[in-house]
Amino acid sequence: MDKVVATALEAVADVGDGASLAVGGFGLSGVPNVLIQALFERGVAGLSVVSNNCGAMESGLAVLLAAGRIARVTGSYIGANKEFARQYLSGELEVEMIPQGTLAERLRAGGAGIPAFFTPAGVGTQVAEGGLPWRYDGSGGVALASPPKEVREFDGTEYVLERGIRTDFALVRAAKGDRHGNLVFNKSSRNFNPLAAMAGRVTIAEVEELVEPGEIDPDAVHLPGIFVQRVVALTPEQATDKQIERRTVSAPEARGTVG
């Protein structure tokens, strides 16, 4: 089945207001910026987003966040996104913060058909006991807090029950993909993109390099096409448009004077 869609706008045409999205990326690596921009251009709002972080440097999900299009975020890292913090503390944004490994496994479990699992991460904290502020009231008070979760003991160790995550759509970015939706990710972009793709009921992938079926060695496939419904091939300009979050330059070595 040829899953290639001509444009990003066409690929996200059925993503409506209030939809839930699993979005890949790790920092600025592997973020599906072109698909996110297409959602922005369509004016979609009230989105519930599941992603490691919510964009940075006015790119990625930060585009939708700044426009007030995101209603809820499930993630594990805020970073230096000041607008994210402002909306959260003012009560404009509902936020569920969970341990990063738990987020990864909740996405994977949802995609694998596992409704819930037990993990030791968070036992003895508000992650398990409840009370984490999901939404503030804008005056410093908590309008909505996380509920307590089931804790059970196995072989003398306590574990907390976490639910698998399924979303209406998933947006991911791959270094290479074929027309059947088989994907290959590059380095740290592999951290969350395969997991987000598994969690989506409809998964849309933007690929930097589109190849024909059979050109990717089956042993090199990171995510099989069974998890992907639509593929968008990026232009060379889109594929190479990548930002650096923090650029560090080494100080030049001191040079001796010539006498």
From TrEMBL:
Signal peptide: none
Keyword Transferase: yes
Pfam families, sorted: CoA_trans (PF01144)
Membrane-spanning ranges: none
One MF term in the entry's GO annotations: transferase activity
Chain positions covered by the region annotation Disordered: 239-259
Basic and acidic residues bias (residue ranges): 239-248
InterPro entries assigned to the protein according to its UniProt record, in alphabetical order: 3-oxoacid_CoA-transf_A, CoA_trans_fam_I, CoA_transf_BS, NagB/RpiA_transferase-like
Classification via PROSITE patterns: COA_TRANSF_1 (PS01273)
Entry keywords, A to Z: Transferase
Top-level taxonomic group: Bacteria
SMART domains on file: CoA_trans
Family: Belongs to the 3-oxoacid CoA-transferase subunit A family.
Database matches in NCBIfam families: pcaI_scoA_fam
UniProt name for this protein: CoA transferase subunit A
Gene source species: Streptomyces shaanxiensis
